């Protein structure tokens, strides 16, 4: 008999799934997206490892195993990063799905009370909720795994045929067991963890709730709601958000996790920028004078500029170890004097290489302004002067790091950048020590040979067209922005779903308030105040934790490897994410408030 009862109530699960299909859409979507993200992340990590194994095997003519690659720093970094993202996505998924299930349980209080009336035990009721949640996995996990696998194939194809460069060996249409298993584990664990608290809440519903339809514990009211500076409807909305501590935690945590994920992923953009720096003045072909002196004639530049395949070119002059007097006290020092043309100077601004307070206009043309590159402990700052070649130069700006050294540090050396006109006026030199050529897409090897013939023995030509990292940079940035777009989508859907479910759970309360005289405008303000309370709480907590985690990630990924890197408060990103969450919240209030306005008072009171 007991076995028959168990099988009878478990047969309600698929029926319940069909009945509540609309309410469960957001939960299913959250599971699909969580599984999709994890499958893609671990799938791409697996493909990257296979590519490295193939490269090493070809280079050393011996087989390399997955374990061998995992013993390297690269392998550990790849999967540690993937593991960290797994945890973040897991926590975000648990909070979002738990909040959705919790709201559904609140709406179905009368149903659970009826189940208790016909003999279902607390343990069976808790198990029913958990199995109902697991029932979603039958649909969501396969879809998420399939989308993640296809996404991995698409990304690999883009890297192989579009980005090319070092990704020509990446496998296509590979089936990643690591990615699939990780996705399945993500979906299952997320749902099981998310269903625990709602299952306990459902099991506490008493049989009498089948009559009353209210499973919440009746709380004694010792005093009225304090309105403070708010109107009564706004104060009620804030009170509704704060009265259920567990729901407030889930809603706030869900919003906060979205912000944390956003701020964490944006650190990856900084990492890619440091790892693969892109400059507006980056050249495809570099021509250096044979003896390092400024003996490449300016006529050569005019001739090359008119040649086929040349998109842009610019030159630099240099004079090393020039005696100089620094600062007000005239401390003797030797500096390197370098000339930049207008294009080069504009590139410094475009690449955000200038420190705050730098003024580019004071360096252009035949002026006495200069940019300085030096260590932080050098006795120079913007506004000081430096005297060399019998003339005084005003420091109009400073660079953030030394662009002429491999590690970005000056190591005690001071470099002075002036315009072409100022350099020629100070030194009398008109030739160039370096010519930089930016190639057009149609440049051929014959065009390069023509430039070499024109150069003769005046310099050395280095063809770096196949060493460009632009494709790799674009690929990584596109992936990060893709994940940010998914996070934004999940955030919007979660906010809309959470507010809608919260309003649905309080339908009878809103009906009672309308019955005693509250108009539709006040109902809207109450819903709006409740939603904004969740959003502001989530923004505050999410921004604080996101900054702390983001800074820690910045230190690990960037600061430990790039000594010149400096972390700064990402004010623009904080504003963007805050405005985005608040705008999504305002938009999410519209539909449920309209639904409540269009409901008759008797309908809202009788709503289950």
By helix and strand content, what is the structural category?
A: alpha+beta
Q: In percent, how helical is the residue content?
A: 55-70%
- Described by the principal axes of the CA atoms, the overall outline is elongated
Low-confidence stretches: 1-6, 213-218
SSE series = HHHHHHHHHHHEHEEEHEEEEHEHEHHHHH
Strand order of the largest sheet: 3-4-8-5-7-6
Strand content: 5-15%
- Taking Cα atoms only, what radius of gyration do you get, to the nearest Å? 32 Å
What's the overall average pLDDT, rounded?
79
Number of strands: 10
Number of domains as seen in the coordinates: 3
End-to-end gap: 32 Å
Oligomer: single chain
Q: How many strands, which pairing sense, and closed or not: the largest β-sheet?
A: 6 strands, mixed, barrel
Count, helices: 20
In short:
With 608 residues, the chain is α+β, with helices and mostly antiparallel strands. It has helices spanning 2-10, 12-19, 25-60, 66-70, 73-107, 109-117, 122-163, 177-203, 209-212, 232-243, 245-275, 298-305, 342-350, 420-427, 445-455, 470-505, 507-515, 520-559, 571-598, 601-606, and strands spanning 285-289, 310-316, 318-326, 331-340, 369-373, 385-388, 391-398, 415-419, 434-439, 459-463. The protein has a six-stranded mixed β-barrel with strand order 3-4-8-5-7-6. Strands 2-9-1-10 form a four-stranded antiparallel sheet, covered by helices on one side.
Features:
20 helices, 3 domains, 11% strand, six-stranded mixed β-barrel, alpha+beta, disordered N terminus, single chain
